[in-house]
Amino acid sequence: MDIAAIGLIEDEDILLDLASLALSHLDHVNANIAHYLEMLEDIEDQVCVEGRSALLSEERAAALSRVLHGELGFVGDDESYDAPVNADFIRVLDRKRGLPIALSILYVAMARRAGWSAYVLNLPGKVLVQLGEKSPVVIDPFAGGSMLSQGQIAAVCRASLGQEGDAAALSAVRMSNRDVLARLLNNQGIRAEQEKDRPRALIIYRRITRAAPERLEAWQNLARLQLESRDVEGAKASLFAMSEVAPDKRIRDRIMEAFEALT
């Protein structure tokens, strides 16, 4: 998949696992992509077999956890949490270890392949997965797909929404598919900057602007690094593109002020 296509198609048409694989393949051009496609199809088959009689959200969550964690061993990487490989989808499939966002992509993608509704939840300090609509459950892929108790969900609602609520209330913090991909890439960008690898960070932020062009933060980070690299024309182009997708006039005016300051 051309990553530019990700930024053009409707959000609901984005297949999270395949899009993540395409983004990761940019860093592994010699990798046998067919192998990973077959791996994802094999996981799908296992989930569909394990969950063939699962009707309730709790049953579907249990089926996902049995396959992805119990049988295949996918789990969060506590030992080397900040390692770049944990946000690299191909390496996550190889190592069966990853960040919460990478593992959530796998869980949600497999649930959707099985025909179940599933969403990635953006919460303070963590990423979780919601399964189901009318009687949803919340699971933690980083902890092997374990289901959150009602008390844990209530605590999450207080932290994220500022009020009591159940799993259904968490629909307010569902992430769009593009936002999920942007968050996965942003983890790579942050780690590149922490390692003082500006060329790598520039590559990552450019990828975010192609896959999720409405993400203002990505354009801002790209322009900042371009200025630090003395690429004034590149920074101006990024600021102009940022103004094109800014949601309101106040923000657009501030962006154009920064643009004019470079001219």
Name the descriptors.
single chain, alpha+beta, C8orf32 fold, Serine Threonine Protein Phosphatase 5, Tetratricopeptide repeat, 2 domains, two-stranded parallel ribbon, 12 helices
Q: Can you walk me through this structure?
A:
This protein has 263 residues and is of the alpha+beta class. The chain folds into two domains: 3-173, C8orf32 fold; 177-261, Tetratricopeptide repeat domain (Serine Threonine Protein Phosphatase 5, Tetratricopeptide repeat). The protein contains twelve helices and six strands. The strands form two sheets. Strands 3-4-5-6 form a four-stranded antiparallel β-sheet. It has a two-stranded parallel sheet with strand order 1-2. The two termini are 37 Å apart. The relative contact order is 0.10.
Averaged pLDDT: 94
Indicate the overall shape: globular
**Radius of gyration from CA coordinates:** 19 Å
The CATH architecture of the largest domain can be given as Roll
The CATH class of the largest domain is identified as Alpha Beta
Q: How much helical structure, as a percent, in the residues?
A: 55-70%
Q: How would you characterize the largest beta sheet?
A: 4 strands, antiparallel
List low-pLDDT spans. none
What is the helix/strand order?
HHHHEHEHEEEEHHHHHH
CATH topology of the largest domain: C8orf32 fold
**Strand line-up in the sheet with most strands:** 3-4-5-6
**Number of helices, where a helix is a run of at least 4 consecutive DSSP H or I residues:** 12
The count of DSSP E runs of length 2 or more, i.e. the number of strands, is 6
Number of domains in the coordinates? Answer: 2
Q: Report the β-strand fraction as a percent range.
A: 5-15%
Structural class label: alpha+beta
Distance between the termini: 37 Å
